[in-house]
Design brief:
With 263 residues, this protein is α/β, with parallel strands linked by helices. It has one domain: Nucleotidyltransferase, domain 5. 45% of the residues lie in helices and 14% in strands. The structure holds zinc ion. InterPro entries: ATPase_NBD, ROK.
């Protein structure tokens, strides 16, 4: 089962062995046996996988560039998580938490995260961070009145709106998108140096809404990662949108019960 089928909660850490969500701090879920609940309701064997890691599995096996066997998928939406793929197999870790880059530190004295850490990546680079930073920037620049005059409630501005404004040349929006993307680029450089992937795929509604976000993150990654590694790593956006989660989750379930070899 993909998290797609239970909504869009930014679930942090999943245990695949028992299908228990160990911690989803933003939603207050701790040790919730989602797999057991679903099995009781449906009578079907159930597996649980984080939505971003499921989407990455689909990109890894059916995406546009199948020549890459060692890849990283990074989903940037309401939260941030990655999937790590070696020989097109998802690296889960013993508790299913491999790839929780959204809760890695990119700003030591940054804001307090619900996970208990300070300066987590997703607090500075995900969709809600872009929205909050844009509101703050608008207020500080005294542009609030122009929004009100146009009948726009600044509190309702979404990350996609900020990305669209940046694509249309809004200087304040451009600054906000670049700042968020810079933080992601730092995390990408660290991942690149650690795993030396052939490709990094960016998915989720933020990269899909902003080429500026993707280009800025890639530029920062190349500046900060070891050059011999970064120069040969391809960065691209995801091929699949929402269907990718279901496709990847089905693959994940097959992996658990049927041994398949890919390519
Ligand atoms: Zn955190």
């Amino acid at each position: 089962m993909s998290q797609d089928s239970i909504g869009s909660l930014p679930i942090m850490t999943l245990t695949f062995i028992s299908n228990v969500i160990r911690s989803a701090a933003e939603s207050g879920w701790h040790n919730v046996d989602v797999g057991g609940l679903m099995k009781n309701e449906t009578g079907l064997t159930t597996v649980v996988v984080n939505r971003h890691r499921a989407r990455g599995l689909a990109e890894c096996r059916y995406g546009g560039d199948l020549q890459y066997r060692h890849m990283i998928y990074i989903g940037v939406g309401s939260g941030i998580a990655a999937g790590l793929y070696i020989d097109r197999q998802l690296l889960s870790g013993p508790r299913g938490g491999a790839g929780e880059i959204g809760h890695t530190t990119v700003e030591p004295d940054g804001p307090l995260c619900p996970c208990g850490n300070h300066g987590c990546l997703q607090l500075l680079s995900a969709g809600p961070a872009i929205e909050q930073e844009y509101r703050k920037t608008i207020r500080q620049s005294n542009h609030t009145q122009s929004f009100t005059d146009r009948g726009i409630d600044l509190q309702l501005v979404k990350a996609q709106d900020v990305c669209a404004a940046a694509e249309n040349g809004d200087d304040l929006a451009i600054g906000v998108v670049k700042k968020a993307a810079d933080y992601l680029g730092i995390a990408m450089a660290n991942l690149l140096n650690t795993f030396n992937p052939e490709a990094i795929i960016l998915g989720g509604f933020v990269p899909n809404a902003s080429s500026l976000f993707v280009e800025t993150a890639m530029k920062t990654m190349r500046q900060r990662a070891m050059h011999p590694l970064s120069s040969e790593t391809v960065v691209m956006t995801s091929r699949f949108k929402e269907i990718g989660g279901a496709l990847g989750a089905a693959n994940f379930a097959l992996d658990k019960y049927i041994s398949l070899s890919f390519f």
